[in-house]
Write a structure and sequence with these properties.
This protein is an alpha+beta fold. The chain contains 12 helices and 20 strands.
């Protein structure tokens, strides 16, 4: 074949351009730090990068929401603490006012101090954060409580502001003022934790007092090396979860107190259990976290009791103590005997029948979170106690008094009672004050739990951010050591191609002859 000057020059030009393109690509990768800088570099890779960037942007939004929710939650917590301080001052004044040695003038002075406490409580309940009222519901631009001629009214609404703090997680960040204002509902909240022990056949849909779990994949980093994924979506019971984790090379078991799971790295750790991308599976199983010693002790995920739950299945309940109990309402005391009860439904039936037989206003016994509680909606005060020689009320967590929790109404009642020198009325107000304090304390517990949830969601968001950015880096980031080496070779190749082409394409006088 004849090699013409045109063929030779085209071949040299194509080789030089190819070497120049390689050099330009490596220079671009070295400058940007990314191996994918255009669609032509990797069409599928660009799509994956865009997906991860979207997930990272969403996760950044979750982190901002967690931050704002934390501010709102902390301010709510401080307000409730300050309100409890006002109620403690009210109690001290009430105790002073019941003294038989006080003169009418002194009672009038105490009444004036109560009026000051009302204004102080009003100021606390009208607090705002970042321009938004804490207790106004959705009406965040105005004060939720107004004092009109001694009567305090709530002018907010029942709105609950919800923050999206995870892909499948939402948290209510406020308390509507109507809940703090109280109602005529007399409530005795059970103090006995009756949540059921975790067992191998416990259904995952029943976990966390019936909240269930989030089916999906988790990411595990153990002592043996790189992170790996475990798909738990096919599990139905705790036994299934344990089997899947054991198949993945971990030791898994139910905690010794039967409240959650315990995961151990047999190689000694460190051990990290994280969410896969934007999931929440690990958190819903209570095993999200890390441990330097390779042991992660999961949080409480026990299940809720039902009316059909046998009493012997409630480990915190001493069935031998379930016998007689008394309830006093409207100066009438009723005795009831639960010694024949075998389930919670039996307890409720005996309770309802005893009240019905005595013609007492209907009190409702209901399952409340991890125990049972009792309420009546007409403002009647009732007391549950143990007859001499029995401890049934204590065993069931029902020993105590149920009273309406009417915050400002009760404080106003104190003022009127002091001004009318009615010490019996003051004593009644002290009983209601107990219920108000319990009511606010329950809100404090709720706010504290919300803070713990936000801590967990913040940790999850941070871990999710690390995972997402690590995955993005593995796809888009250039290996700078490799790029530097390849760049040096590409520069040498390009310079060589220029030198060779210069020699091959030299023009001499003989070429024109």
């Amino acid at each position: 074949m004849r090699v013409t000057d045109n063929l030779l020059s085209n071949m040299v030009l194509r080789g030089s351009q190819r070497n120049l393109a390689t050099l330009a690509r490596l220079q671009r990768e070295g400058t940007t730090g990314s191996r994918i800088n255009s669609y032509s570099d990797s069409p599928s890779g660009v799509g994956t990068i865009q997906r991860y960037n979207t997930l990272i942007s969403q996760n950044d939004g979750y982190q901002r929401n967690v931050g704002r929710a934390r501010v709102f939650n902390n301010e709510t917590d401080m307000a409730l603490q300050d309100l409890l301080t006002v109620l403690q001052d009210a109690r001290e004044l009430g105790i002073q006012a019941t003294s038989e040695t006080l003169s009418h003038a002194n009672l009038n002075i105490i009444g004036t101090e109560y009026s000051s406490l009302i204004n102080e409580a009003l100021s606390i309940m009208n607090r705002s954060v970042e321009g938004s009222s804490l207790f106004a519901g959705y009406q965040t631009g105005s004060n939720p409580f107004v004092n009109n001629n001694g009567e305090v009214y709530y002018q907010g609404d029942l709105g609950e502001m919800i923050a999206q703090v995870g892909p499948n997680s939402e948290v209510v960040i406020n308390i509507p003022g109507s809940e703090i204002l109280g109602s005529d509902l007399s409530l005795l909240t059970g103090s006995m934790d009756m949540a059921l022990d975790l067992e191998l056949d416990t259904q995952l849909t029943d976990l966390s007092l019936g909240q269930g779990w989030s089916s999906g994949i988790i990411t595990i980093t153990a002592a043996r090396g790189e992170p790996f994924e475990v798909d738990l979506s096919g599990a139905d019971t705790i036994e299934d979860i344990i089997a899947l984790l054991q198949d993945a090379g971990l030791e898994a078991e139910i905690r010794s107190d039967y409240t959650g799971l315990k995961i151990t790295d047999p190689d000694g750790g460190p051990l990290v259990i994280a969410e896969f991308e934007s999931g929440s599976t690990a958190a819903s199983l209570g095993i999200l976290g890390s441990s330097d010693d390779g042991v992660i002790t999961g949080s409480d995920i026990r299940t809720q009791v039902t009316w059909d739950t046998p009493l012997v299945d409630i480990s915190s309940l001493n069935v031998a103590e379930i016998s007689e109990m008394e309830i006093t309402i409207d100066s009438t005391t009723i005795s009831m005997d639960f010694s024949g009860a075998t389930t919670l439904a039996d307890i409720k039936t005996i309770f309802d029948d005893a009240l019905s037989a005595a013609g007492i206003p209907a009190l409702e016994m209901f399952i409340d979170g991890d125990g049972i509680s009792i309420s009546v909606d007409n403002g009647t005060i009732f007391t549950i106690s143990n007859p001499p020689g029995f401890t049934t009320a204590t065993a069931l967590g029902l020993e105590g008094t149920g009273s309406p929790a009417r915050l400002f109404n009760t404080l106003n009642e104190f003022v009127l009672a002091c001004n009318s020198y009615d010490t019996d009325r003051i004593k009644d107000c002290l009983d209601e004050l107990d219920a108000i304090e319990k009511h606010i304390l329950q809100m404090e517990v709720s706010v504290g739990n919300r803070g713990s949830i936000l801590d967990g969601m913040e940790d999850a968001a941070m871990q999710r951010n690390i995972n997402l950015r690590t995955n993005l880096s593995s796809i888009s980031d250039a290996d700078m050591v490799s790029v530097a080496s390849d760049l040096a070779r590409a520069e040498t190749a390009y310079q060589s191609s220029l030198m060779i082409s210069g020699r091959l394409l030299q023009t001499r006088l003989f070429d024109y002859l």
